[in-house]
Amino acid sequence: MSEPLERTLVLIKPDGLQRGIALELLSQFERRGLRLVGLKLVWPSQTLAEQHYAEHRDKAFYPGLVSFITSQPVVAAVFEGPRAIEVVRTTMGVTRPHEAAPGTLRADYGITVDFNLAHGSANAGDAKREVALWFRPDELLSYSRAIDSWLWR
After folding, report:
1. What is the pLDDT of residue 38?
2. Cα-Cα-Cα-Cα dihedral of 84, 63, 73, 34, to 10°?
3. Which segments of the chain have a pLDDT < 70?
4. C-beta of residue 118 within 8 angstroms of C-beta of residue 94
5. Helix (H, G, I), strand (E, B) or coil at 20
6. How many angstroms separate the CA atoms of 17 and 125, rounded?
7. pLDDT tens for residues 19-61?
8. What's the pLDDT at 4?
9. Phi, psi angles (nearest 5°) of residue 123
10. Class level of CATH domain 5-151
11. Active-site residue, selected from the candidate residues 52, 56, 98, 119
C-alpha cells in the first residue's frame, strides 16, 4: 500500500546561495526521490520573514533569524513525495552542523548554527502554512514522472 504524498517547503538560505551551492543542495532532495513542484528565487520582505518565523517571535534569536533571511535572496522550493517532510529534514540533518550526521547537508556543507544553509518545514501543519506563505497555488505544478510508479509504491 502506498503512503499519501506530502508537500514541504525548502529554503536555501542566503549562505547557501552566496556560496554558490544552492542547486547542489536542492539536487540532494531530488536524489532522495522527491519531486520538485515549485521553485523560485525570492528576496524575502520583512513581513514575509516575520510571518515565516512567527513561532520564534519571543525567542532571543528571532531578530537575527529575520535579519539574516532578509539580507540576501533565498531559493524557495516545494518538494512532494511520500513522507516528504521527514525525508527533507533527514537529508538536511540537525540544525547545528557540528551535531549533524555525516552525509547530511548541514554536516557536509554547514558552518555554524547561524549559517546552516537550509530550512525545511518541521511538520505537516508548518508545511501547509509555509508553502502558502511562499507560493501561490498557481505556482505549484502537479505532474508525474515515469519513475514515480515504482519509487512511490
Report:
1. 98
2. 0
3. 1-2, 153
4. no
5. coil
6. 27
7. 999 999 999 999 999 999 999 999 999 999 999 999 999 999 9
8. 81
9. -160, 175
10. alpha beta
11. 119
- Closest alpha carbon to 84 in 20, 133, 148: 148
- Give the count of alpha carbons within 13 A of 118, CB side only: 33
Q: Which three cell numbers stand for residue 120?
A: 525545511
Q: What was the pLDDT predicted at 11?
A: 98
Q: Which contacts of 135-143 are long-range, i.e. CB under 8 A and separated by 24 or more positions?
A: 135/38, 135/40, 135/76, 135/78, 139/38, 139/40, 140/7, 140/37, 140/38, 140/78, 141/37, 141/38, 142/37, 143/35, 143/37
52 is catalytic: no
At position 8, the amino acid (one-letter code) is T
